[in-house]
Specification:
This protein has 420 residues and is mostly helical. Helices cover 78% and strands 0% of the residues. It has two domains: 38 residues; 377 residues, no CATH class. 48% of the residues are buried.
Length: 420
Amino acid sequence: MMGYLLIAAALGLLALRVNLILILMFVAGYTHMVWGAGQLDYFIQDVWSAMDRELVVAVPLFILVGSVMSRGSIAKRLVDVMIALTRPIPGGLAVATILSCAIFSAISGSSIVTMLAVGSVLHPALVANGYSSRFAIGALMAGGTLGIIIPPSIPMIIYGIITETSISALFLAGIGPGLLLTLVFSSYAIVMNYHIPRQRFAFAEFGNAVYKGIPALMMPIILLGGIYSGYFSPTEAAAVALVYAIGIETLFFRELKFSQYFDMTIDAAKLVGALFPLIAIAVSMNLLITEQRIPHEVIGFLTERIDNQTGFILLTNVILLIMGCFMDTASAITIASPLLKPIAEAYGIGSTHLGIIVILNLEIGILTPPLGLNLIVAMTAFKESFGNVCRAALPWVALMILCLLLVSFQPWIAMYLVGG
């Protein structure tokens, strides 16, 4: 009876559009009082424990890195290199768009930052060179989603903190699916734009773009090379990336002034202020759920009805795709991951592989109505109606679902580099 009252109260608060953080705090506090030890002190201790971790610091640092690069000239210089490289390929500018998003994703860790930084440079260029506006918007929205699957990824860090999964393992596991999506997107871009005239490869232009972009091109090498070589942790990598980005933008490219960093820091603080309470509440609920053996009961319920891994994977994908339509990535990870992890392990799916499946599903959710974040941002950024951006996203969503199924049922795509 108490459980039904809790569900009814939570749904009522949602209907009244109460802030999600307040709803989750109410649910967590109620749960601790009714099914826990009956003391809110434990909830406060859990929140402190969740935030008292080195990895938490990496999130605001990566957010700041993305802001610095998008407001400075790192993004433009990376795009210039990709444009010069893909000139002789059919649909070369479209391929440059996807590759630019992939490389920028390997630095920023954010979907929206990637889409806006690359889109501000390439959307006008695509339209001016004969690409349809719908295709251009779709490519930029889909390319932007690579920001949460190609490491370093902020959602991966959130998932790792909540489920106590190795962040480095998640980063390695994201490389295969990220490359798969980049390849599929690029192939689709070539097929759809094969009719657009190619241009001759210009060694002088390419050499000049590389020369001017060397400091920008070095950033993903330093960042990912340092993490995977074990030279520094993901948190240390975020700090190094931020210092490097500020250094080259302020002292080398001279595109940014020190006064601009204040606004960037305030924007990052606002985003972190909304994100960290979600993580803290999720960790507390995870501990309570485990203590009350709720996953064991759910496992028993499911195993009576689903007797194989394939059925569980399909059900999980359907649930996550639906969640992605109505919730932002951080909130969906916060709610779904603690419950899914022990159940997935019972079906022989490791926490790292599950994390990639979760993030791929929510990556698709960024492009699906009614609350797809990239759809909403693209509508404003490119001055298009919501219906137009939804239609622009459709073929890319289909491609992403295909890649999701491949990664779900062929774990080696994600786990080969992890060694699992």
